[in-house]
Amino acid sequence: MQLATTNVSATIVVFMSGQLNDVCARVAPPLISIVIATYNSKATLQQCIDSVTQQTYPHKELIVIDGGSKDGTVEVLKANASKVSDWLSEPDRGIYHAWNKGLARVGGEWICFLGADDIFWDSTVLVQISEQLKVLLAGIRVVYGQNMLVNGNGVSLYPMGASWDTVKDKFWAGMCLPHPGMMHHRSLFEQHGKFDESFRIAGDYEMLLRELKHAEAKFIPDLIVAGVRQGGISSHPSSSLRVLSEARRAQRMHGQRFPPLLWMWSMVKVYLRLLLWNVFGERVGRGVLDLGRRMLDQPKHWTKT
After folding, report:
1. Does position 12 have pLDDT exceeding 70, yes or no?
2. Residue 111: which residues within 8 A CB-CB, separation 6 or more?
3. What is the rounded distance in angstroms from the CA atom of residue 73 to the CA atom of residue 43?
4. What kind of fold does domain 30-232 have according to CATH?
5. What is the pLDDT of residue 9?
6. Structure confidence by residue, pLDDT tens digits, 115-169
7. d(CA 186, CA 5)
8. Which of 268, 273, 265, 267 has the alpha carbon at shortest distance from 290?
9. This prediction's pTM
10. What are the extents of the domains in the chain?
C-alpha cells in the first residue's frame, strides 16, 4: 500500500512539474529578432543600430543583411560588431531576398523588420510590445503599433496606423498596416514560406495577405513603434503607381478577381497627382494637394516630405 501511495505521489510530482514547465515556457520573455536590410546606408545605419541596442528589453538579437554596399556601410557594421548578432554583406536581388536571408539566420520566436533609415521610436518599445505578446489571444501571429512619418530633415510629421477593427475591411484594397517594427510570429513563415522575391515593393503586403485573409492581427494602441523616413523619389506619383500595380498582382494571387473599389479610388488619386505635377509643376502640385488635405482636416504631407 505504501508503494502504491509513493507511485501516485511521484506521478503527481512529475505531472505538476510538466505543467509548471509548460506555464514557464508560456510566460518566459520571448526572444525578438530584428532584421535590417541595407544597401549603401552609411548615413543612417548607425542611428538605426543604436535604436535597437538601446532597447531596454534584453531578449533580442539583431541581424543585418547588406547588399554589397560600397559607401562605407560595411565599415559601420564592422565597427558595431559587438552590437550585431550576425551580419552578411554580399550582392542580393532586392529587399525581399535580403529579408529571406535574414529569416534563415534568426533564432527568435518573434521577428520584425526595419529599414536602414528607420529607428525604434524610444528605448522602451520592445518592452511595451513584449507585455502585449504575453496576453495575445490564441492564433494571433501579427502584432503592430503605429509608425511616425519623418521627413528627410528628421522632422516628425504625423503617426500612421489604425486598429485592426478599423482597417481590416480595407486591407484587401492595399497595404494599410505600418510594416516597420511589426511583429511576425516565426510560425507564420514556417506555415506560409518566405517572402516572394518577384515583388520589388509590395512583397510585405503579399506575405501578410497569406496570413490575414483568414486570421486576425493585434493592434497596440498608444504605441509608436518606429520612425520611418519618407521623401525624394518615394513621394513621386510614379512610385505610388508601382506600389498599386504590385498590390493588385498580390490581390489576384489571393483570389481577388476584380479590383476593390478603394484600390481603384487610390489609382484615380495617383493619376490626379500626376496630372497636377505635370501641368503645374511639382512644387505647385504639392501645395494644391496639401490644400486638399487641410480641407479634409488632415495634416500636411506633400509640402513636408
Report:
1. no
2. 32, 33, 34, 35, 103, 183, 184, 185, 186, 189
3. 8
4. Spore Coat Polysaccharide Biosynthesis Protein SpsA; Chain A (3.90.550)
5. 45
6. 999 999 999 999 999 999 999 999 999 999 999 999 888 889 999 999 999 999 9
7. 44
8. 273
9. 0.87
10. 1-29, 30-232, 235-295
